[in-house]
Amino acid sequence: MMIVHPGSEVRVLIRSRPTANFAQELIEYLPDGQTVSVHQRKDSRKGVVNNQLSSWSFRLDGVLHDVSQEEVYGRVGRGVVLGALEGYNGTVMCFGQTGAGKTYTMTGATESYKQRGIIPRALQEVFCEVEQRSDHAFSVHLSFLEIYNETLVDLLASVRGCPGVGPGGMAVVEEAGGGVSVRGLSLHPVHSEEAALNLLFEGEMNRIIGAHALNKHSSRSHCILTVHIESRSRTLSDAKYVTSKLNLVDLAGSERLGKTGSGGQVLKEAMYINKSLSFLEQAILALADRRRDHVPFRQTKLTHALKDSLGGNCNTVLVANIYGEASQIEETLSTLRFASRMKCVQMDPVVNEHTDPVLQVRKLEKEIQLLKQELSIHNTLANRMGMSYDTLSETQVAEIQSQVRMYLEGSLDEINIVSIRQIQEVFAQFKQAVQQQEQKVKDQLCQNYTLVEKAQSTAGSTAAKSRGSQGTVGVVEGHGFGVGLAVPSERHIRLLSPGRTKAIKTKELASQGRKEAVEGRSPGPGKPVESVNPVQRDREGRKHDPQSQEPQGPQEPLRTDSPPPKAEAFEDFKAERGSEINRILKENKVVLLERCARLRELTEGVNTAKREIDSTSTALHQWRDKRQSQGQFVSAEGVPVLDEAELSLALRLRELKTQYRQQYEELRGTKAEVSYCQHLVDQCRTRLLNEFESWYNESFLIPEEVQAMLRSGGPIRPGLVPVYKALALEEDEQEHFEHLRYELLADSPSAISFYNAHNRTVQRRNYSKAMSQTPVQKTTPRGSGRTKLPAILSVI
Ligand code: ADP
Ligand code: MG
């Protein structure tokens, strides 16, 4: 049995027809069972020296000499047949001169069961295997093609119920995967060996037999019987299935024209046969030469029909039939040469696996069903009821559409998230709303202005100025419409929780005033270079007062979506969301002020005491200097005696010093308190500002990453907008804001970085101060001075 090795060569075997006149001296089968040596006498007719021998040796895959039909099937056919049942394409082909035994090898003697050939044995094996392999469902079809004088003939066209050949006739056609098929060739489903054999005999009967000088039964045509096999696993409910084609080919005689000695019709037949076989040889040479990309399969019907059956993705076996008589030695040599060329053809068979689209869909549907069940279990466990994962109905889409509209109008605060499909639809509706809005704005602009391309706008604007009444709107590529008026902006969609609504409403009212101021401004960068707003110029070229212009421009309704100025929003924040921290801040400030006042008092006290000490000390020294000049006053015992004035000065100085020390101690404690209070106030303030900043950002839909960046104070990533831009503050708003920053001093929200820097400095200063204190002071318990003070509310 043949074993298929991927990447191996086509298997070639020699079979010789038995004859009483076997040319033993010319044909020698070597004992290895694979090699044939041929010795040829030089032809005396061609003027070459007589009795001179030339020898050739051919090493093939096997020699079938005096071998039974059964053994031939075993060595030639079985492996290919079994491969076909696994899904590999296979071809068994007989080549050789007429009368060499090709038909005998392929079909055999039809009248003798024992001498039946490869085809009936292959059909028997196929159905035997189909029966045994019960885990697979097989479907087998047969087709029988004859190529006669370059004409395709369906040998089974006579079978009852066979559809006739279509209008285009029969033709070899290329298939998607590189294979070929014959259009118009009937395919016959077969379920048993007997039915298959009936078709074989029917085809044999229909075969066109040409009269020939050598053998009246030999054929002048090529015949290809193809067994089409499809198999699906019964055990795996798989959408995958395998197919294969088993080609059993009986080629026409390969003898050369000169040998036939015939004329007329037979001559014509011989010409065609020679042509097709010589092209077969060319195709095989090309296949054997790995450097060649192109194989000339399409030159004849035979090679074209065998395109996917010669090597490549196919198990191919060739039987070279020879007629071993001395008179046939030239044909024998020619056949062996063809055989050795065929042996060089590489094959690399692979299973033809396919996916059934219908089954695949069914399988996926089943899987979806299962996953839905899985989801519903999860939903039940998570207490999510009434979830649906089906495509949204028209009613559901309409419902989402109205929700989005209400949300945009402000009558709906939130859209609840239900499912992925619903979220996708919400976004789709948002997109639609934006597009509609854009179109509306565009239409309104088109009504009032004449649109010109950007390239024209420079020239057009000059003309427009002279025309006066007719305005121009420049169209800037990639920027939509730019006009002399403020461009509508849809940058902000506020997501307000009910608690925030009030604050924002107040801001919207406040922003009205600013809006009016903005309208008079000239277009900013990104707006068309040359655009003239007709309503801003009258015929004398004088500028109109923008306040007097139509207030309801297309941009008007969108203006109300600008965020409120921070300073105003901050006031609201302090009153509502930030009220608690603001209260703590205020209380801490009160304590701080009180401590500061006490510090001032103590400083004054200490300074006064210091001044008194200085003056008393000076007076005492002056007195002593005076006494020194007069001589020392000594008691009776010889002890130095102080006079009254000097004594009172000395006592006063001591008292002052004690007082000073006490006051100084208190001063130092109070100073530490003030520093501590200041620190708490700063912390409260920073927290208030931070919380406000987050609240403000959240309220105006600044992307999460921008918020994170703002919180971290990190660098702004390219593509992200600075906070002013993200808040869509116009230039004048920024100026206004800058102004407010100073006006609101410490409590202004935009002063965050200022305060952060300030806090860091204070911390540094406190630290260095602590380091400079004396060891005694440093060991003083931290809260010792503070316990006497009113409670300080810490926010940390
Ligand atoms: P081809 O098809 O090559 O023209 P055939 O198969 O028709 O040749 O064989 C010619 C004749 O030789 C037939 O009568 C056939 O029975 C006989 N023959 C060929 N090979 C064998 C063989 N191996 N054993 C017995 N008879 C054979
Ligand atoms: Mg034949």
TrEMBL record:
Name of this protein: Kinesin-like protein
Gene giving rise to this polypeptide:
kif9
What is the organism of origin for this protein? Salmo salar
Where's it found, cell-wise? Answer: Cytoplasm, Cytoskeleton
Similarity comment: family membership: Belongs to the TRAFAC class myosin-kinesin ATPase superfamily. Kinesin family.
Ranges of residues in domain Kinesin motor: 9-345
Region spans: Disordered: 497-567
Q: Which Pfam families match?
A: KIF9 (PF23735), Kinesin (PF00225)
Swiss-Prot/TrEMBL keywords: ATP-binding, Coiled coil, Cytoplasm, Cytoskeleton, Microtubule, Motor protein, Nucleotide-binding, Phosphoprotein
